[in-house]
Description:
189 residues; 0% strand; globular; mainly alpha; Rhomboid-like fold; 8 helices
Amino acid sequence: MRTKFKIVINSPVVIGFVALCFAATLAGILTRGYSSRLLFQTYHSSLALPLTYVRFFTHVLGHSGWSHFMGNASYILLLGPMLEEKYGSAVLVKVIVITAVITALVNYIFFPGIALLGASGVVFAFIILTSFTGFRSGEIPLTFLLIAVIFIGQQIYEGAFIKDDISHLSHIIGGAVGAVIGYFWNRKK
C-alpha cells in the first residue's frame, strides 16, 4: 500500500506575503528598478501624491535583488508558519502592516534623504515575536532577553559603527513591533 502525499498550504499569509515579495522583486529586476522606485520603495516624496501613502505599505514587498529577497524570505518562511499557527492569520497580517507603516513613517520623518525597501523589519518582528511563543503572564522569557540583546544589540552596533546600505533602524523598529505585539497579545491570553 502506497501512502499518498499532498502539498498543503499550511500558512496562507506567509506564503502569500513571500509570493508578493517575489513578484515585486522580479518586477524591480525586470524594470531595472523603475517599479521599485514607483511602488516598492518608500522615500521622502510629496504627501500630495497618493503613491506616497501606498509605498508606506508596499515598501516591505520590494527588495534590492535576489540575495536580499532570499535572505528575508528564508527567515519569513522559517518563522512565519509557527507564528501563523500560534497567533492566527489576522494577527500576522497586522504585524506585517504595522511594521511596514511604522518603519516607513520613521524613515519618512527622520531620514528624508534615504529610500527604504525590503522585508527586514518584518523579519525582525517575526524573530522577536517568536521568542514570545512560550510566554506566560508575570514572566519574561529568557529567549526574548537573549534575542533582544543579540539581534537588537547587533543592529545598534552596526548602525552606529558600520557604513552599509542596510537600514538597521528598520530592524530595530521591527523588533520593537514584534516585542510589543508579542507581549500584549500573550498577556491577553
